[in-house]
Specification:
Layout (H helix, E strand, L loop, with lengths): L20 H16 L3 H60 L7 H6 L5 H4 L6 H13 L8 H59 L4 H4 L54
Helix pairs in contact: 1-2, 1-6, 2-6, 5-6
């Protein structure tokens, strides 16, 4: 067994527990393979810490693979049905516009297609069948005086049929897609646990007296980006000294000289 002082003492890093799940699990598998080929001081801690979590990860990965294979054609069907629905709504919008005279501005037409047909085709796919059903009802309401009722009802029937096909595709894919989403989150949690076990295994090896260089011949080293340096505090802007305005000395108001009142001389007794 080597001491910390032997060999090159280079500080290394196991993969971060916040890294991508495939990278964490790859390093955990590599570590277990390398440690299992060494003496018990290396092998036993690795098998104890990484063995159970990698068995669990392998089970989740197999389930996720099957779930993705089952969901893929159903999700593709949603995309295809959504594309057909979008094309249909765009076509009907153009046909109605042509039938009513291709107006530049039309208040009645804006009631059918507020802001254009994109209102019905854009946004979340899960809500599109409901929006298309609303369009079908508006067409059947005969809102536009220049749109023949027969034409409006035929367009409504096409919209409603396409909405039903899209809704059916969405419902068929909902559960398989949800299974994939849950298993992906579970695998991420298992990978995070494997990343923490790698960090704990490194601490175990260091406590046993192995050097950094030796440890990272077993645990793959992953470089990490240093935390961004904090910008220095901004210097306060220099303040311009403002010379005080000269104060005028107040001059005393001129006082008017008041002549003394003339005194009358008293007459002799």
């Amino acid at each position: 067994m080597r001491s910390h002082e032997e060999g090159t003492n280079i500080m290394g890093n196991p993969v971060s527990p916040r890294a991508a799940s495939p990278n964490i699990l790859e390093d955990a598998k590599t570590t277990l393979t390398r440690a299992s080929a060494r003496e018990p001081a290396w092998r036993d801690p690795a098998q104890a810490r990484l063995g159970p979590v990698l068995v669990l990860a392998a089970s989740i990965e197999a389930q996720l693979k099957d779930a993705r294979e089952a969901a893929a054609p159903l999700v593709a069907s949603v995309g295809a049905a959504n594309g057909r629905s979008d094309d249909l709504v765009a076509r009907i919008s153009d046909e109605v516009w042509n039938v009513v005279g291709r107006p530049a501005n039309d208040a009645s037409l804006s009631l059918l297609f507020p802001g254009g047909y994109g209102y019905y085709t854009e946004g979340d796919v899960a809500g599109q069948p409901t929006r298309m059903e609303i369009l079908a009802r508006l067409l059947e309401s005969n809102l536009h005086p220049k749109l023949p009722p027969a034409k409006a009802h035929a367009a409504a029937a096409e919209v409603r049929a396409s909405a039903a096909q899209l809704r059916q595709a969405i419902e068929a894919s909902r559960e398989p897609a949800a299974v994939v989403g849950v298993l992906e989150r579970v695998l991420t949690a298992v990978a995070r646990n494997a990343g923490m076990e790698l960090a704990n295994l490194k601490r175990t090896y260091k406590s046993a007296g192995f050097s950094e260089a030796d440890i990272h011949t077993v645990i793959p080293h992953r470089s990490r980006k240093p935390a961004p340096a904090k910008p220095p505090p901004a210097k306060p802007a220099p303040q311009e000294s403002v010379a005080p305005a000269p104060q005028e000395s107040a001059k005393p108001a001129p006082q008017e000289s008041v002549a003394p009142a003339p005194q009358e001389s008293a007459p002799p007794a």
